[in-house]
Design a protein that fits this description.
The chain is mainly alpha-helical and about 160 residues long. It has helices at about 5-15, 20-30, 40-50, 70-80, 90-95, 100-110, 115-125, 125-150, 155-160. This is Mos1 transposase HTH domain-containing protein.
Length: about 160
């Protein structure tokens, strides 16, 4: 059961005039181990008896829980697309978030990863190597034919 639902039950039973101990006993019978602790029941029972109506937590001051917002994801994406060699610390400085959050945005939200030449060669399986060699030979043969052919240019180029 969710915190919100537990608080609703505590509120109802408190408004009926039950003590926190009675509320705890009733919740243990119904919910078993998933019922809130005695401290939580006392806290919320006291809150509701003093006139509180809201079941939600009070807003807290300070930094937001996460720096990963749609706006920050878009900023990081634009910086990377503008300069693919930009460092994570430079992105963190420009956007105003930590390097760890930049790393999370790049890898988890944008699905980007660094792909070096070494890993590209290691990732080829033998079947791919053979097909790439065939493509390479075709390109080489085509280049040789075009290089050995006589150079011809439109007459306007040589006319002075």
């Amino acid at each position: 059961m969710m915190k919100f639902e537990h608080r609703a039950v505590i509120k109802f039973l408190s408004k009926e005039g039950n003590t926190p101990t009675q509320i705890r006993e009733r919740m243990l019978k119904v919910f078993g181990d998933s019922s809130p602790s005695e401290f939580v029941i006392k806290f919320w029972s006291k809150q509701f008896k003093h006139g509180r109506e809201s079941l939600e937590d009070d807003p807290r001051s300070g930094r937001p829980i996460s720096a990963v917002t749609a706006d920050n994801v878009e900023k990081v994406k634009n910086l990377i697309l503008a300069d693919r060699r930009i460092k994570q610390w430079e992105i963190a400085r420009d956007v105003g978030i930590s390097k760890e959050r930049v790393h999370e945005i790049i890898h988890e939200h944008l699905g980007m990863s660094k792909y070096s030449c070494r890993s590209a060669v290691a990732d080829f399986v033998p079947a791919h190597k053979g097909s790439n060699i065939g493509v390479s030979r075709t390109v080489t043969i085509h280049k040789r034919r075009t290089l050995t052919a006589p150079l011809t240019a439109p007459p306007a180029v040589f006319a002075a």
